[in-house]
Amino acid sequence: MTELDDHLLRRVRRGDSEAFESLFLRHYGAVYRVVYGLVRGHEWADDLAQKTFLKLYRKPPRSTEGSTLM
Fold this sequence. Notes:
Blueprint: H1 3-13, H2 17-39, H3 42-58
């Protein structure tokens, strides 16, 4: 995870929707590609990628130490 991602995630934890949008735009493509590689269906991959980000929005991780977003 980059320093920018870490900064954005801290802002998301404080409820900053603009920071969430930035994370979404930065990482949606990568998340979609990984999910698509697993399910091999565009609609299903799109749905699962969106659910992944919804989960991040609703309950962002407390700590980012040692983790990666993509």
